[in-house]
Hints:
Elements: H1 6-36, H2 43-50, H3 54-60, H4 64-76, H5 79-90, H6 94-119, H7 126-143, H8 145-153, H9 163-173, H10 176-185, H11 190-205
Helix pairs in contact: 1-2, 1-4, 4-6, 5-6, 6-8, 6-11, 8-9, 9-11
Amino acid sequence: MTTRNPRKYQSHIRTQQAESTRQKILAAAMALFKSGGYDQTAIEAIAQKAGVSTPTIYAVFGSKKAILKQLVESAMFGQPYQEAVDRVFFSTDPMDRLRSMSGVARSVHDAKNAVLELFRGAGVVSPEIATLQKENESRRYESQKPVIDFLFQKRVIRRGISRKKARDIAWCLTGSEIYRMLVLEKGWTSNDYQRWLGDALVRSLMAEG
């Protein structure tokens, strides 16, 4: 008969408790940001709603901005995003891999629009959101590098396009502004956007034939 290691068991329990506390704080913050606005929500109010102490929130997240960042990133880079990224690297065909980038963009923008819609009109201060968007744009640009490198390795990039220009084009086409114009302004479905974007990436970056 085997005996469970008490230290490992206790460590597992502590990890579960820490994650439970973290999720309670995030849920409380989300509810308060939606109802009262980001700027008007105090850390103390989040602590009270979550049933934890104020020092606990500072220990777990450090600041209110960090809570907002986690809420936005959890939505934008959660499981749907990871599944879309996995599909990109599953294929060994350059065209399929490039087209699959449209699924990643769709996942990011759909989630971003959904989470920001929760805060829209609820008083989230624009500098906070602007800072998060700038950080996420930098992250998105860097995440596309392996796909562009793969296209160059396979020698399928359109003639005359440098590695930097290829990354810039991919970043531009998959950006939130085009998504906003087509989906939010002109009423395209996310499926329509994804299909169009896949075609646009191929036409813009891949050599013909």
